[in-house]
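I would like you to help me understand the sequence and structure tokens below and explain how sequence relates to structure.
___
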Amino acid sequence: MFYYFDREEYIVEPPVWSQTTKGIWMAHCVGIEPCTLVMDLEGTDGRERGEDDTAFEKQSALFALAVSDIVLINMWCHDIGREQAANKPLLKTVFQTPLENLEPVLREDIQKIWDSVPKPQAHKETPLSEFFNVEVVALSSYEEKEELFREQVASLRQRFFHSIAPGGLAGDRRGVVPASGFSFSAQQIWKIIKENKDLDLPAHKVMVATVRCEEIANEKFSSFSANEEWRQLEETVQTEPVPGFGRKLTSIIDACLSEYDAEATYFDEGVRSSKRKQLEEKLLQLVQPAYQFMLGHLRSGTLERFKEAFDSALNGGKGFAAAARDCTKYFMSQFDEASADAHIDQANWESSKVRDKLRRDIDAHIAAVRAAKLSDLTTMYETKLNEALSGPVEALLDGASDDTWPAIRKLLHRETEKAVNGFSSALSGFEIDDITKDKMLSRLEDHARGIVEGKAKEEAGRVLIRMKDRFSTLFSHDSDSMPRVWTGKEDIRAITKTARSASLKILSVMAAIRLDDSADSIENTLALALVDPKSGTNANRSISGDPLASSSWDEVPSSKTLLTPVQCKSLWRQFKSETEYTVSQAIAAQEASKRNNNWLPPPWAIVALVVLGFNEFMTLLRNPLYLGVIFVAFLLIKALWVQLDISGEFRNGALPGILSISTKFLPTVMNLLRKLAEEGQRQANPGPQHNPPVPAKTLRSGTNDHDDHSSSASSGITSSENGTEYSSPSAHQKAQ
């Protein structure tokens, strides 16, 4: 009889009579229902075939038993005890694998069959009940008692409906193959049976579960890869952060794993769990790049926001260390919250590496900004020191005196203290340790000293120019800073010595750096060796050799030396050679001035003139007309002298004076005669509207012309200045 099972019910078809043995048939229950083996043992054919001629029945029985949970044997009661008709060989084959017992009336035969079945060594003494729960249900004849038969079948059907309930027909079944794997399982079982191999059902179920769970896992992985929500999430996260990334991806993965669990729930638990773990690992491996993209966006975004907030805090006047500490704490917590939102529940990934990288980036940015800020602060205060020291130090060195270096030390101390206090106050916001802070302040102090020393070295390179400028200033100007005129009364030797001594002061001041309040003998050594070498020699007779023949100064370290004694001696020699010309020019000018101011002949010449010219003098006294002519000639000569500026022309030398006078002599004489003629004509023809200021005006115009270096103007000035002298003889002549 053939039984067909589905999800809803078992349908028992009426028996089909046949002339041949139907063998063993089985039906599989889909879903949670058990598999049932139906064995139809009716028939009369094959009785003489014997026990060993039933290979197909054995294979069929073994196959059906392997794939079924319940064995239903349908027998006629009058067949019990028969060999072939009762299919005892077939039952023997069934009992080689788990079978159910018959009623007590069959137990003896069944036990005999079980005892005769070959069994593994480990189960030779194992009773039948260890493997089979045997129940026998007697059904009435369908032909004779159809109604009762149907009632009994309906009752049996109900037992099958509840067969997997506790105490049911298959309530203790284990390792059931799900419907989705039944086809593959059955094929593999039949293949093993046909090859006459040992049938290891537990291992077979593991194999079926492995194949089917792997197929399900692959299907779910492919389904996940093609999931539109996942693909959109993956594409978006490559360019920008996705809000709720972890929650969305967790939901997608969870749905995929839930589908796997639903389809693989009836397979072997160990295999199912193993394949589920593999599927989960594959899914996580697939989504890990997206997760890393998300963390990368979170890290870069957090870093950029940190930079902006940090710069704003600093620009707002907040202390550097406080701003760095507060911003770091806030944005690291922001990253922690964002990374928690991006966490995938199925993964045990940690964002600690990305977090550490973010912290390193933040610390690196803080360090860079800190270095830049400290550099700017240092540069600012160094610039202030440079502005406060360079100009004043240069001016003090230019005006070298005994107070130069004390003034420089005082200036350096004042400006350095001011800069250090300001710099120390500015550094307080950085919360720098005391050792580092002291080092930075010390470097600022060293920088201030370096400015002074650098400026001193720079001025030392121009010491010769400074010396010559001072010498020129003192030598060419008097105490009132007026240009000196060499009239012959000045003591050029004393002036030269004074100017050279002042120049030597510059050399002594610039010879060494004196930022430490320590005395030295550089100035005395230079004065004795250069300005007054004779007195220096007398005072140091006990000392042999030249005191400047050395490369170092006594009591002055080489690091503080700007000009060595040898260099000072060489500079002084060059200085003297370059200023000798100025001194010689002054001497020459003084001598020329003396010559120009002394026009009287020597006394002996005057005596000779008086003695030898006595007769001529008496002649002039006897004839006053000669005296008038001589007086007029004197006036003319005096006018020419003034107009031609003979003394001034000869101041530059005899030959240049002669050449200049020769070019101006004739125009000056002609202009003088013209003026005299005009004056005589005006006096001979006086008009009623005589205007005395007119000639004066004409003469003043001549004065203006003299300013333009005109010869006629010169004559006009002479006539104006000496008008009385000219008019007096004319009036005297008219009176005569």
About this structure: The beta strands are 3-5, 10-12, 23-27, 36-40, 70-74. The two ends are 198 Å apart (CA to CA). The CA atoms of residues 192 and 198 lie 7 Å apart. The chain has a mean pLDDT of 76.
